[in-house]
Each structure stands twice: as C-alpha cells, then as structure tokens.
Design the sequence.
C-alpha cells in the first residue's frame, strides 16, 4: 500500500492523530497533497522555518501564525475546521517539540477535538518518538522506501536520451542496484551515473548505495568475490544454503535463514559473505553492537529502519553478526528495556518477514541465547560450526599455503583444536616474516586454549540440538571425531573424520 492509501484509510476511520515516519518529507508531502486534492480535503503544512502554509490557497489573513511558534501551529488547526470538510495539518519534524509539556497538552486537545471537527494532526518525522502521554492518540504510518516500479519511473524520468536507459537484464541490474535508496538518493545516483558514464550504470549505483548505507550507520554493504571454495569443510551448511536459495525454487516457500553457532574464527561471518556472492545476492551486515549503542529509545527504531532497508533490497543476504549482543540483558536486570525491545523487533522480523531476505545470524555464546530464538519457524536450520576436523584442517592448510605462496612440502604444525582463522593467521605470519610454518605456529594461541571452557560448553549445548555444519545430520561430539576428553588423543593422530 502506498502512503496515500494508508493515510486515506486512517482518515476515513477518523484517526485524528497520525505520525508518519519518513526520510523524504518533500516526497511525502507531495503524495499527501495529491490525496487531499483528489478527496477535496484542506491541507496545511507547518515547519519551524516557514511557518504555516495553506496548500493551494496561499496564506489567508487571520490564520497567519508566527513561524517560530510550534504551539500556535497546533492552535491554527482549530481555525482550519469547517463544518463540511476534512482538514489535515502536516507538522514537519515536529518530534523536536514533543518534549514540551504545553505542546503535549495542545496536541492532546487538538487530537481529541479533531474527532468532531474532522481535523487531523499529521506529524512528519524521520523517527517515531511519541511522548507516553500521547502514545494512544497517534497511529503510526511508515513511508516506505520506493518499490521497484517507482524506482523504474524515476529512472525513466532521469534517463530520457536514447541509450541512457538500458533494457532487459541491464535495466534489472540497474533497478537491483538502486533498491534500498530513497527517491531522492536514487534520482541523484541516476544523474551522477549519466554524468560519469552517459548511461545508467549499476556500478555507480552500488558505490553510492554502499556509501549511503555506511552513512546511515545501520547496515554495511558487502560486495566481495569470496566463494564457497575459499572455505574448507562446512559442506553440509554450504549445500543446505545453496539448495535453499537455488534459482527457480518454489516461490511459495521462502527461505528465512540460518542461525550459526560456533567458537570464534570458525567461519561464521565468512560463509555469509561467500553465500551472497555464490547466490548473486548483495550481503548486508547489520551491526547489532552499533544499533544498541544508539540513543536510548532509538535502538528499536533504528533496527526497524535497517530491516526495512533490507526488505527493499531483497533478494539479499543479511548477516546479523554476534546476535548475543542484542540479547545482553534480555530477561536479566540492568538496562534490559532497550535490548528486550530490540530483540523483540528482530524476533518478529525473523518469523514474519515476507520479503526474500535470507538472514544469517551468528552467535558464539549460547548462555545468552533465549529459548524462544530457536523456535522452529524463526530459522530454517540451526548449525553448529565446530573446530575443523582432520580432513577439513588439511583442506584449509592447503588452501592458505597456496594462497600465501608458501612451500607446500614443508612440515605443518600440529593443529588439532585450531580454527580456520588460526590456520590462516599462521600461514599469513609465515609469509609475512618469511619463516617456516612450524616457527610461525609458535605465535598462535588457539581459542580452544584461551577459551577452552566456553568452547566445551558450546559443544555440549550443540550436541543433539544443532545440525552439524560439516556432515549431514545432527551434530554429535562423537560423530565429529571428538572424544569426550578431546586432548587425550595422541598428538598428530588424525581424527576419525
Ligand atoms: N573453514 C574455513 N576455511 C577457510 N578459512 C576459514 C575457515 N574458517 C575461518 N576461516 C578464516 O578465518 C577468518 C575468520 O573467520 P570468521 O570471521 O568467519 O569467523 P567467525 O566464525 O565469524 O568468528 P566470530 O565468532 O569471532 O565472529 C576468515 O577470514 C576466514 O578466512
Ligand atoms: Mg564473525
């Protein structure tokens, strides 16, 4: 539904307090003005700089209010009322004034009076920040990012000369690249692309999109060339993801995502990056830590905003790294309000989202993962990424020995209980310092040693609960060739993998 359609519904149902969350005020006002014209409703807008503007009628004597007075603006709504008609007052960026007691009271009265007078208070703001006193008086409408066909219209509006607008697959690539941008951003990006290349070029759009996402601080866009072949082992997980996202799969059963558990450095983030590339989808990183760090009361809002962008960019892969950070404090003491709400937002999204967004969530501390997370319909599967077994380690060694241009015939250090990340850094160090692997290995302290206990706890928890990332079926410690006492096996003896 468009903004206008949703607004029309609320107005017909006499919701006299409306809060529109939008980053594109001019666009939103243009849409509202169109609706009001069609319906014969009166429309006035107010902002702190320009004061009151009666749209379509110029300013009328008697309704003039001084520009800088947010209270007078609300009171002017009473004057707009007329017995037959409906009147809307759009207050731009009014969230800046809603901490004031008098403003709150004036809004309260205006919204109540509006039911008989058919006057509507419409706050237009980039955030939803409704004071508690008014929470029940406002209905919230989200001004969505432009849909694909709207972006197409914008593209056609900008690229008017022959040859500027690609067709067929070329146009699809352009629209893919522009998805997730606001209308204004898309228009600017198209113009820049024309200036640089004389046509709409996806590369320019991806660059600009990456920039604008970074600026927003909500998501980062990853467009690397990693493939599954760059990761040793993890065969079961790889084949699950490729099947779930294969092209031409049934459209009525949508893949939701996977939850990856495992010690640090076992390739959880790496596989999400590679998955995007393997399936031709952009990969978006949602940084839970920085969302949590935002101002009180905004984490939830920012999370929702980030998920909306992800929806607009579908089909895509979204990596929610270190999910446990969103949970610190859930159900516990301290400032649990923020994380509980933010976590709630994530949970709802995980089970409800209709868009083709494949979520890869990673965590390495289950003691902080609440049970409701693993409820069946949130994720398609929960995988455990254990420390690699003998065969997987061999693969990873060969891979990095080759990649760092090391002598393949040299002796390899004992690497039982090493993660992929540790094998990689050993090879990197050997190349950097130009020393044999055996020597470089003396600088590696594996997590299995530094955090042995938590790795052990993780394994115990995962056994019987999670799928094994390496082999088909449920993870079990014996199945992965890890005897209970882990270290009692002779050094150098291969796992039973
Ligand atoms: N199975 C593997 N094969 C090849 N490389 C690997 C493998 N596992 C990890 N690595 C390498 O280790 C590095 C770190 O891995 P990654 O960041 O994916 O770990 P992680 O599981 O996300 O850890 P954390 O829990 O700390 O986020 C990656 O750059 C990747 O190249
Ligand atoms: Mg990671």
Sequence:
């Amino acid at each position: 539904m468009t903004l206008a359609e949703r607004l029309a519904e609320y107005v017909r149902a006499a919701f006299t307090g409306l809060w529109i969350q939008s980053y594109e005020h001019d666009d939103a006002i243009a849409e509202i003005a169109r609706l009001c014209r069609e319906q014969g409703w009166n429309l006035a807008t107010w902002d702190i700089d320009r004061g009151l503007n009666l749209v379509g009628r110029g300013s009328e004597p008697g309704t003039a209010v001084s520009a800088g007075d947010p209270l007078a603006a609300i009171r002017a709504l009473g004057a707009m009322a007329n017995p037959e008609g409906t009147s809307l007052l759009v207050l731009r960026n009014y969230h800046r004034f809603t901490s004031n007691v008098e403003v709150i009271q004036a809004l309260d009265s205006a919204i109540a009076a509006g039911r008989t007078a058919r006057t509507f208070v419409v706050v237009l703001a980039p955030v939803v920040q409704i004071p508690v006193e008014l929470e029940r008086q406002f209905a919230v409408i989200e001004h969505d990012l432009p849909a694909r066909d709207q972006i197409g219209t914008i593209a056609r509006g900008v690229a008017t000369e022959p040859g500027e607008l690609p067709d067929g697959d070329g146009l699809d690539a352009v629209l893919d690249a522009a998805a997730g941008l606001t209308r204004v951003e898309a228009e600017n990006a198209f113009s820049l692309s024309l200036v640089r290349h004389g046509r709409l070029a996806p590369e320019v759009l991806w660059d600009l999109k990456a920039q604008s996402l970074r600026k927003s601080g909500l998501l980062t866009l990853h467009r690397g060339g990693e493939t599954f072949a760059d990761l040793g082992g993890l065969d079961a997980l790889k084949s699950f993801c490729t099947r779930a996202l294969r092209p031409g799969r049934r459209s009525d059963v949508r893949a939701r995502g996977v939850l990856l558990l495992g010690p640090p450095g076992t390739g959880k983030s790496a596989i999400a990056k590679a998955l995007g590339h393997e399936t031709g989808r952009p990969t978006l990183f949602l940084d839970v830590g920085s969302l949590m760090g935002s101002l009180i009361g905004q984490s939830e809002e920012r999370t929702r905003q980030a998920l909306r962008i992800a929806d607009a960019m579908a089909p895509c892969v979204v990596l929610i790294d270190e999910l446990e950070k969103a949970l610190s404090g859930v159900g516990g003491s301290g400032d649990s309000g923020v994380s509980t709400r933010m976590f709630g937002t994530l949970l709802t999204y995980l089970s409800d989202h209709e868009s083709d967004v494949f979520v890869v969530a990673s965590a390495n501390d289950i003691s902080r993962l609440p049970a409701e997370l693993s409820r069946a319909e949130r994720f398609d599967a929960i995988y455990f990424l254990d420390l690699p077994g003998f065969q997987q380690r061999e693969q990873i060694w060969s891979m990095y020995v080759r990649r760092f241009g090391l002598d393949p015939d040299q002796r390899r250090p004992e690497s039982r209980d090493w993660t992929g990340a540790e094998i990689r850094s050993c090879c990197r160090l050997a190349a950097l310092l130009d020393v044999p692997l055996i020597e470089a290995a003396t600088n590696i302290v594996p997590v299995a040693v530094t955090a042995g206990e938590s790795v052990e706890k993780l394994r115990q928890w995962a056994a019987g609960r999670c799928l094994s990332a390496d082999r088909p079926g449920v993870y079990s410690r014996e199945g992965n060739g890890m005897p209970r006492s882990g270290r009692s096996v002779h050094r150098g003896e291969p796992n039973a993998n």
